[in-house]
Every structure is written in C-alpha cells, then in structure tokens.
Amino acid sequence: MKKIVISILLVLGISLLIFSKKTFQKEKISSTQNAKIITEQILENTNHDIEVKFPQFYGLTENSDKIINDIIKDGIYDFIEVKKSDMILYNLYLRLDYKIEYLNDNFISIAYSGIWIPATDNIGFRGGDEFYTINIDIMQGKVIQLNDFLVDTNKIYDLLEQDKFECINPPENIKENGLFSRYSNTSRNMIKEEISSDITKESNQRRVQWYVTGNALVLCISENRYLHKYSVSLDEVKEFLNADIMSKIKDLEPTAAKLTIK
Amino acid sequence: MVYDSSTHDYREIPTTNSYILCHYGQGCIYPIDSGQRVTVNNTQGSGQVTVTLGQMLNQTVTWAFREVASYNLQTSIPTYLNPNSGRAITQADVDEINRVMDDYEINKNPKRVRHFLAQCHAETEAGFCPIERYDNNPLTDQRFKNYEAQGNTLGNIPNSGDGYKYRGAGAIQLTGRTSYKVFSEYIGDSKILSDGALYVGQNYFWEAGAFYWSVYKPNSAVASVQSLPGNQWPIYQSQAGSSNRFDLNGKCDAGASVFDISDIVYGNANDPVCDLPKRTNSYNYYKSVIN
C-alpha cells in the first residue's frame, strides 16, 4: 500500500514539474482587417520566472504568417535563452511586454520592454530595465538589422552627435538632460562603433536598438542605467537609409495605428 | 588657525573634515582626529590611501555634481541648484571622500579605493544623479512601481509609495526601505527614513555610498547581523578570499575584477545597461593614478 502511495505521489510530482515548467496561455488581444494579434505568455514556474508576451499574427499575409510568426518567436526565445543563465545565476525574475510600433503589409517593428528583478535572497538589488526590438521585412521574411537599414552610418551618427535626433524620453522631463552630445567621450565612441560596425553581438548585449514608429526612426540607447530613445523623421534622413527598405515602410500606410494593442 | 605658506597668512581650517597638505613632508594633516595623523607621500603610517583633487580632476573621468537645493515630499521631486548641469569636483568634495573612505575603511589599500570610486562614478552618472532619475513623474513612474511590487526584496511595502520614496540615492544609490531603515539607525538620523532618497541625496551622498560598501552590502549576507538594529551593524571585517559573496573590500583585496565588483553593486554585470566598459574605463584611470 505504501509503495502504491509513493508511486502515485511520484507520478503526480513529475507531472506537476513538467506542467509547471512551461505553461502557455493564449490571449486574444485585437484584430484588424487583415491581421489578428495573439499574445502568448511563457511562464516558467521556477524560482527564476520568466514572463514574456509576444505577438503572433494570423491573416497578416496570404501565405507567410508562419514564417513571420516563427521569426518573432525565435527572436524572443533567443533573447530569453541568453537571459536564462543570468536569471538562474542571480536568482532573478524577468518580465517583458511588447508594443507593435509599426505595422503595414511589408514591415513590422516590435519593441519589447520590461524589467528584471531579484526573485529572492538578493537584498538591496533593485533590478534593471530590459529592452529588445525586432524589425521584420514581411515580404522577404527576414529580420532587418540596423546596418541593413542605415547605408551611411557616419552621417546618421553625426546627426545623433549634433543632437538632430530628439530624445523623446528625457530624464526628469528636462530636454537638455537627454541630449546625446552630453554623453561622455567614452560612451559616444562605443555607440559610434556599434552603429558603424556590423552587428554581430548577441541581441541582449547591444547598447543600440532601433524601431520605426509613425514617420520616425527611433534609436534606443542604453546609457547610465537608462534607456534613452532618440527620434528623427524618416524624411529628414531618408538619403542615408536603404531605399528598398524605405519604400516598404513609406509606400504603404501603417496599420499599427488602427490596432488596439494592449 | 594654520599658517598658509603660499599666502604668508594665518587661515582658519575650513571644515572639521578637511585636511592640510604638509609643506615639508608632502603629506596630509587631518584635524578631525585628536592626535592628528600625518601622512607622508600620500600614504599614512598605517597604510591608508588619500586621494587628491589633482587625481580626481581628469578629462576622461570627470565629475559633475548636481546639488540638491530643496525637495518636495508630496511630489517627490528634488530641486537642483542647476538642474541641467553639474559642477566640477572641489577640494571640499575630495575632503569628504577621504573622510568617508577613512571612516569606512575603504582607504586601507589602493585596490579598494580604485574600485569604490569607479563604481560611485558609474552609479551616479559622475555625481549628476545624487538621487535616482525619474522619467515623467516619480509618483507614477513604472520603474519605481516595480520597486514596491508584491514580493519585492527591498523591504518596500507594496503599493505604498515606498518605491519612489526609497529610490536610489547616494554615491552607490542605496535603494529600498530596508536599507534606508538600517542607514537611518546606523547614522542616528530619523530623517533618513522619514524623507528617504531626497534627504539622503541632499545630505549623505558620499556617506551613503561608503555605508553601502563597507557596512550594508557585506552584512546583508550575514544572517546574525540582519536582525540587529542599524546602530549595531558593524563595518564588515573584510578578508581577502572571504566566503561572504558581498564582501566588497575583501574582494578588492583579493584582486577582484571590475566585472566582479560591478556584479555585486549593479546586480548583473552581464546586463549592457550596467555599462561595464564605462566602469572599466573609470577603474583603469584610477588604477593609473592611485598607487
């Protein structure tokens, strides 16, 4: 009898462990004329929980939904995979949510933002911000890197250094405190190098991320514990951008504005 | 009164925590201590390290302090003397750095001093942020809401306003109700707990940093100390190779890397927001001048 009870408990325990390891919740968020957005929530019920929401599209294109969805899913899972070791090592809890910054029939920009915080036993740690973006050419079914989009990185960097980009989230609401030109020489050099060179770093090690929203290119730069967002009108910098990608963004009206995104 | 050989005049000692450079022995006289210690060649008899204004004034690793003129507890917004720019480091700042490094035993060797200064520089954006920045409104910023989320490990009461009240402040950005409570008791100043980050950023910039470094962080890994009131928390008796994972001075003594120290101070040195290259750059500078 005792053996049977132990066996049942063992089976129950293993089932619970497997079940709690990865739980998927699907939540319908919104739909438009040709797209539906689904949010999947990954929940790993360990001490190092990771909660990430990401979109999946249905009916976005005639036959490439799976490709786009896989790119989105692979992107965020790759991001999480690298983070996992830190989560376990430092006993952290990661939460990420997303916002679709741009969407038309050709192009998607998704920005993920969130936090990592100590799960337990890390007295005095306040955690930090997490940020990750992905930009996708829908027709070609591939991720667009910053270096794909910028054809003249030096010009773009010069404009950044000349404060032609506007900081849209200046600290303490003081415009001057968000000026890129106020970064230290060391920081500016590192950012210039990252913008100018091929991005080969893991996505979670980049200091510069980017997305498109409305009619603007936004460069997102991690500096001094914070994420600063620098925006410039696409029209102002179009001569320094990849014309093919620009045509995919500019020729079609964005539909993101029509979506009701959580 | 002291005789100033450069002006051939007698001068009052500016503050009780100042020191005087010795004209003959290239050392410093500290009037804060009875008996006064005399340092020779920047190194005191018992091995303490003193930093000078010359070492702290540098084009690569600059300091730009914003001073808190006043603050509003209702809005949780500080008013800075100049909100847009910080002032250069002065001799009074250097005096205060030397005082706290002495009081908290950071100046026992150059390794501790280099790491301490490099971390303070990065944590406060070179002194520009004596109080953690807010984005739009401290009362509603998501960042501070996170600090008081259910299950937080900072000792903050969920959804109470503790998140913004006890946000980061001081040279290593003390954060959370628990650390402010211990610091308040340690110093014996109840306003540290009642006014939180705004008061600490205004009045205890360097003291809070040194307290975190030598008292709070290392002792937070010692169960027997955690239950004590703050006035009984000791300066942690560091040892090179100590098993205490938060013994910052001990790790410095054992030759810890900037990554190792940043990992403790920031919490995750792998995170690009930690800005390890900048911390390394500052450390390398201090390594080149503090010997």
Q: What can you tell me about this protein's structure?
A:
- The complex is a heterodimer of chains A (262) and B (291).
- Chain A is an alpha+beta fold and 262 residues long.
- Chain A has one domain (21-259): Heat Shock Protein 90, CATH 3.30.565.40.
- In chain A, 32% of the residues lie in helices and 33% in strands.
- In chain A, helix 4 (153-161) runs antiparallel to helix 5 (185-196).
- The longest helix of chain A is centred in the first third of the chain and has 26 residues, at 65-90.
- Mean pLDDT of chain A is 78; it is low at 11-33 and 256-262.
- Chain B has one domain (37-289).
- Chain B contains 13 helices and six strands.
- In chain B, the strands form three sheets. Chain B has a two-stranded antiparallel sheet.
- In chain B, helix 3 (110-123) packs antiparallel against helix 13.
- The interface between A and B is large, with 40 and 46 residues.
SSE order and pairing:
The complex is a heterodimer of chains A (262) and B (291).
Chain A: H1 2-21, E1 23-31, E2 36-43, E3 50-58, H2 65-90, E4 92-103, E5 107-118, E6 128-137, E7 142-143, H3 146-149, H4 153-161, E8 166-167, H5 185-196, E9 208-213, E10 216-223, E11 226-233, H6 234-237, H7 243-250
Parallel strand pairs in A: 3-4
Antiparallel strand pairs in A: 1-2, 2-3, 4-5, 5-6, 6-7, 8-11, 9-10, 10-11
Chain B: E1 2-4, E2 9-11, E3 20-21, E4 28-29, H1 53-56, E5 68-72, E6 77-80, H2 91-103, H3 110-123, H4 142-147, H5 162-165, H6 177-187, H7 191-195, H8 197-203, H9 205-219, H10 223-226, H11 248-253, H12 258-265, H13 276-289
Antiparallel strand pairs in B: 1-2, 3-4, 5-6
Classify the beta-strand content of chain A into a percent band: 25-35%
> Which fold name is given in CATH as the topology of chain A?
Heat Shock Protein 90
CATH class of chain A: Alpha Beta
Largest β-sheet summary of chain A = 7 strands, mixed
Low-confidence stretches of chain B: 32-45
- The number of strands of chain A is 11
Backbone CA Rg of chain A = 21 Å
Low-confidence segments of chain A: 11-33, 256-262
In helices, the fraction of residues of chain B equals 25-40%
Cα shape of chain B: globular
- Nearest-integer average pLDDT of chain B: 87
Most extensive interface between two protein chains, with residue counts: A-B, 40 and 46 residues
Radius of gyration of CA atoms of chain B, rounded to a whole number? 19 Å
* Anisotropy-based shape of chain A: globular
CATH architecture name of chain A: 2-Layer Sandwich
According to DSSP, the number of beta strands of chain B is 6
Assign the structural class of chain B, choosing from mainly alpha, mainly beta, alpha/beta, alpha+beta, or little secondary structure: mainly alpha
- The ordered string of helix (H) and strand (E) elements of chain B is EEEEHEEHHHHHHHHHHHH
**Considering the protein shown, what is the CATH homologous superfamily of chain A?**
Fervidobacterium nodosum Rt17-B1 like
Report the sheet-strand fraction of chain B.
5-15%
What helical percentage do the residues of chain A reach?
A: 25-40%
